[in-house]
TrEMBL record:
This is Acyl-ACP thioesterase. The lineage of its organism: Bacteria, Bacillati, Bacillota, Bacilli, Lactobacillales. Residues 158-250 form the Acyl-ACP thioesterase-like C-terminal domain. Keywords: Fatty acid biosynthesis, Fatty acid metabolism, Hydrolase, Lipid biosynthesis, Lipid metabolism, Transit peptide. It comes from Periweissella cryptocerci. The keyword Lipid metabolism applies. The keyword Cytoplasm does not apply. Belongs to the acyl-ACP thioesterase family. Residues 4-132 form the Acyl-ACP thioesterase N-terminal hotdog domain. InterPro entries: Acyl-ACP_TE_C, Acyl-ACP_thioesterase_NHD, FATA/B, HotDog_dom_sf. One of its GO terms (molecular function) is acyl carrier activity. It comes from the Bacteria. Pfam families: Acyl-ACP_TE (PF01643), Acyl-ACP_TE_C (PF20791).
Amino acid sequence: MAGAVFAEEHRVLYYEADITGKLTTANILNLAILASGDQSETLGVGNAEIHAQNIGWVILQYNIDITRRPSVGEQIVIKTQADHYNPYFAVRNFWLETSQGEKLVDIRAIFTMIDMEARKMVRIPQVMMEAYQADKVKKIERIPNPMQLAETELPEVMHNFYHVRFFDIDHNHHVNNAHYFTWMQDPLGAEFLTQNEVVNINIKYESEIRYGSEINSYYKILPAVDGIVTTLHQIRVDNELMTEAEMKWRAVTD
């Protein structure tokens, strides 16, 4: 048994899509987090309430399965549910569905809570998780780590440079998690991104990236296996690993 499911409708807007007319992976994440934020507000544990206690949520890892990205103008339903938690970690589920109930995207996320000033992990207040009706457990269900680029490979693999701008920073005072998807996928190039459709993303956040940072986005495209291409990604600042991801893609057939 897990927490109550929260749902809200959304029409995909033109500025949420890429050149293919489909919702970007970054905006899939933005909509998911919007829904969880709206649920928190309805339960009285939204950002205003938790920030008043000098604490905030931080996402550690996502696993995202994509059956189909919705298109501009399509009416979708975003659902979310606080699943289970222990004193330091919480697991939340998200789904994007059509109005008819066809599942489009399935997301599992691991969160922790930090002191907003010290930027260090703190215990999650139990009263907060009780508001979500999530299950308390001793050990959370971990998401497997993404396949990793070896550090010895970095001089040989492809990479792009990006500068962290003021508008990349969110209300938690660090880079909006959705921006990492753009930094990781953009270097793959227009030809790859229009000829392939992402079907799974496993992304793990290691350290926070701050305003003004210069980042290196490394990537490697592995040979296709059974029609699925895997790409490996790392975001580094001053050679320190900040985020890594493994993405799986299938060729566009229509």
